[in-house]
Amino acid sequence: MQRKNAARLSLWVVGILALVLSSQLGFAQQYGWEGEIRDAIEASRFSDAASALDALDVSGAEQTQKEWYYELMRRIKLEFPLSESEVKADLEKRGYDSSDAQMRDWESKRYLEMRPIDGARWYFKLAVNNLERLAPEIRATRPSGTSESRLNNCAEMIETSDGQGKLTLGQKNVFRGVAKVPANAVPAGETIRYWAPFPRESRARQQDVKLLSHNADVCKIAPKEDMQRCVYLEKTAVEDEETVFEFSFQTTSYAQYYSQEYLEKTVKPYDVNSDVYKEYTSEYLPHMIKTDAMKAWTDEIVGDETNPVKIVSKLFDAIDERFPWASSNEYGTMFCIPEYVIREGHGDCGMLTLTLVSALRCKGVPAKWQSGWVMNANGVCGMHDWGEVYYEGVGWVPVDMSYGLMTSDDPLTRNIYKSALDQYRLIVNDNIGCQFTPEKTSFRSEPVDFQRGEMEWTGGNIYFDKWSFRMTVEQDKLD
Fold this sequence. Notes:
Elements: H1 2-25, H2 34-42, H3 46-55, H4 60-79, E1 82-83, H5 84-93, H6 100-108, E2 114-117, E3 120-123, H7 127-134, H8 136-139, H9 148-160, E4 164-181, E5 191-197, E6 206-214, E7 218-221, E8 230-236, E9 243-258, H10 260-266, H11 275-280, H12 292-302, H13 308-322, H14 337-344, H15 349-362, E10 367-375, E11 381-391, E12 395-399, H16 411-414, E13 420-421, E14 425-429, E15 454-457, E16 460-461, E17 468-477
Antiparallel strand pairs: 1-3, 2-3, 4-9, 4-17, 5-8, 5-15, 6-9, 7-8, 9-13, 10-11, 10-14, 11-12, 15-16
């Protein structure tokens, strides 16, 4: 544990200040007044930011941007709703030290997430849950390690594969999604527009995509080319009645495993002039970054290594060791996700993936985002993000950064998610922040990822706190 904490401290010393500053200096603000607003919001001086916004006399696109910053502060407050007394009570209920000194210590180490909004201490809605995952003295007392079911599935992936990307462990899936908008959340007679998640058809790991049913008045499936793919649904709000969207679709999903040995023997030097190389080693701001600080951090980890397979392995190991998984703020409340991960010392699946993708692009290794849902054998689904790495001579190879290293003495099992993906996936996205078909006209609730879907009416966006979503799945293994 001391080695891990020392590594994290070393990382902060090398890169944290430069990375934080890069957020303020880069990512080209559209308008000259945005720097002041962003500085105030980053510093949790929301009253100052609001006063500066109130004083702005702008119109058109600038007015829309102004409205976004008001909305951003509202969303951040939703993420940090807990007072200090509420957190103290929760700590005491769970049997932990709730003294001021202990809380300040946890806060300084980024184990207990707090924002001093306008001078008052407000805590992340899952702050104590994350504390249990992050504070070494608490984490050491709790169960850890890879579950037996996941280890068994890893062993089965390796056993049934040729180590060269052969598709195995196929299964038929029928997904059922239900989104609910409370009665009178939208005036009666208004149309509720819902962009619901729908499977991509970009990888052999996911086949036989078909919409099976829906209960909407209007239904349109987005083109296969859309990188964040949806099925678009409309329903009319009825007075005093809950609006319920129901839909189902099918896929066939497969596991895919590439051995590290096969990749090291097979990969060729990159064609640096190819479209794939140029696109997937470039910045995609603001969350796939190649700042000087990020480059220096990756150089520290990778050293003189030039083999892309070994570069991926080194960065994967470093991120797995230094940044434990923890629940995150909504992505739409962050200016730059990899910077958040490095500053706070933790991240969820998508945040760790974006950190890995940024790091790989800095080292000239093409990498991309992929996300959607993960399922288990009991039909339970959860939102999840992972990625892919492009190897010349092989193609796109999956990688799951947040699954990390498996707790196994077998090196094949331990390293499997550096170059494999199990069959329990639903692929919805192949990039972040993409336009929908049809286009959404209001602010997105999630401007980065797309998993629960998006809603709006003529009055604007319907944020996540105003509706609910649940996904379930029925699975049948192929013979």
